[in-house]
Structures are given as structure tokens and as C-alpha cells.
Amino acid sequence: MIEIRNLSKKYGTFEALKNISLDIEKGTVFGFVGPNGAGKSTTMSILATLALPTSGTAKVGGYEVTDYPKEVRKRIGYMPDFFGVYDQLKATEYLHFYGASYGIPRPDREKLIPQLLDLVNLSNKADSYVDSLSRGMKQRLCLARCLVHDPDVLILDEPASGLDPRARIEMREILKELKLMGKTIIISSHILPELAEMVDEIGVIEHGEMIAQGKVADIQNRLRVKKVIHIRTLDQENSLAEKLRDEPFVSSVLSDNTGVHVHYSGDDAQQSELLRQVISWGIPVVSFQEAQSNLEDVFLEITKGGPSA
Ligand SMILES: Nc1ncnc2c1ncn2[C@@H]1O[C@H](COP(=O)(O)OP(=O)(O)OP(=O)(O)O)[C@@H](O)[C@H]1O
């Protein structure tokens, strides 16, 4: 659905994007992550046909963004990181305005707008003025605005920025629904855990370069980001910790009153072998569990740190 090849963008002599390539399949939720100034917004605005690349190509649904901008616009809903809302309008009027801009006839809009407001949990604000809405509500209204023409692709630039935890959860739930509807979603953030639960794949960009791309688990494996395995036993933590230190792929072992924490770089097959080994030592295992994968660890491992120039 999205195909980017050797895309570069210069602002004067400054290279904001350096030869990036990227493929996103239909129905994928793709998390675009990188520190401030890495080039996420630049990439997204090129995809949204609002900025021109210096070289390279970007296609949405098979249409090249510079050659067929109108075709691309029909297929995308774009939510920029800074958006203006028209303060003098009520939520419903705001959506009518955008719906009319896309040429949707009024009778169709009358049916569509209540459905959109329902989707973004704003039905009770239909007649409220836009400027009376909270930041989270405005963000959700903007998302509804992106959906008026039922686009296949959603390009969302930091949709959860500045939201409190509850508002973020609401945004996340809406995105899950959109994924179920078959939308292809590209969503940026510099806060990785924010994306953890909703993305299928990530691309990590730093200083205008794509430095890692793929399924979160694959990237973790490829970069050999160590897992932490937590093991509880019937009071044999100390002897277990002692034995584990000599096992392959174990880099460190900590033991405390909650159990044994093993920093481990083996793959799944090797991990299952480790469990078999522990049981063969006659240690009564109560639980053997991988600590939840942490996108933050991946991010710190692959970016060198610090904001881009
Ligand atoms: N119109 C412009 N003129 C000159 N430089 C620009 C322009 N727009 C962006 N840049 C520069 O290009 C680089 C990439 O910016 P971009 O906004 O794409 O980053 P980003 O990853 O979206 O960052 P953030 O998370 O802070 O939004 C930055 O160094 C920025 O200062």
C-alpha cells in the first residue's frame, strides 16, 4: 500500500531525509519512530503530497505522490502534528465542512457524521463548539475529519502527543478499531511504549536514515536485544542462580525475593531448551516467564541517542 524508494529531502544544504526505502503492506499498522528532528514529519508530509522529495519515489496504493497527487489524496487521511480547528464551528459543522470539501453530498454526510462521531466517542459533543473541546477530544475530532472520505491509508503524525494517559488509551482503542476495518495505518511517535500495543511493524529513523525496519520481535532478535526471563522456584533461587551462570546465552543472573532474573540472548528454541535443563536439575519450577518485550530497550539499543541536528 505504501512503497518508498531511495527518498531524499534537502532543505537548502541540510539533508533531512537520506535515501530511505520502506514498504508497508495493506492492513498493517506501522509505527514510525525516532527522536525529535529525525525526519518522521518530513516523510509523512511527502506521503501526504504536501512536500516534494528532492529525489526518490513514494507511492500510495500504487500512485506516485508527485505524479498523481489527486489520486493519492483520495486514498489517504492525514493528521498533521499541528492542526488548526475552526473555532467558530460546532463539531458536526466542522465535519460537514470537510465532508463537503471532499464532494460528499449532504444527505450522505447526514448519515456519515453521526457514525464518525460515534467511532471517535464524540457523539455527546456533536453540538459543542470545537474550541470548547479538550485537547484529546480535538485530536479525536481531527481523526474523524481524516476519515470522512473513507481513505484506505491513514497517516497520523504523533496522534497521541500531549494526551493524558486516559486520552491515549482512548486513541489507542480507536486505532484498533480502524485496523479491524482494514485500514493501513502509519503512525509516528518519539515515545516508543506509546506504540507498543498497537503496531505490527516499526521503522526506526535517525538523522534522516532508516536504521531498522521490520516486525518488533524480529528487530529485537536481529539486534540481539537481551530478554529477561523471570523464574520462580520453591525456595531454590540461590542454587538455580548459581547453575544458570554457566549456561550458554546467559549474560547475567540476578536473584531476589521475587525470583531469578536471567538476561538471555538465546532464541525461542534455545529458551525452551533452557527450561528443560532447569527441570532436569530437579529444581521445582513454579513459573518460567519472559518479561514483556520492551520497545524502549529496542529504541535505546539502535539509536545512538540525542536529538538529531
Ligand atoms: N521547512 C523546513 N526548513 C528547514 N528545515 C526543516 C524544515 N522542516 C523540517 N526541517 C528539518 O528537518 C529535520 C527533520 O524534521 P522533521 O520535522 O521531519 O522531524 P521529526 O522526526 O518529525 O521530528 P519531531 O519528532 O520533532 O516532529 C529537522 O532537523 C528539521 O529541523
CATH level 1 class label of the largest domain: Alpha Beta
CATH fold-level assignment of the largest domain: Rossmann fold
State the end-to-end distance: 31 Å
Number of domains: 2
Low-confidence region ranges: none
Largest sheet: 6 strands, mixed
Strand content: 25-35%
**What count of helical segments does DSSP give?**
11
Radius of gyration, in angstroms, nearest whole number: 23 Å
Helix-strand topology string: EEEHEEHEHHHEHEHEEHEHEEHEH
Kindly report the average pLDDT value.
Answer: 88
Structural class, by secondary structure, is: alpha/beta
- Within CATH, the superfamily of the largest domain carries the name P-loop containing nucleotide triphosphate hydrolases
Helix content: 25-40%
Q: Strand arrangement, largest sheet?
A: 6-7-8-3-9-10
The distinct ligands, each listed once, are:
adenosine-5'-triphosphate
The outline comes out as elongated
Family: Belongs to the ABC transporter superfamily.
Organism: Paenibacillus lemnae
InterPro entries: AAA+_ATPase (IPR003593), ABC_transporter-like_ATP-bd (IPR003439), DrrA1/2-like_C (IPR025302), P-loop_NTPase (IPR027417)
GO molecular function: ATP binding; ATP hydrolysis activity
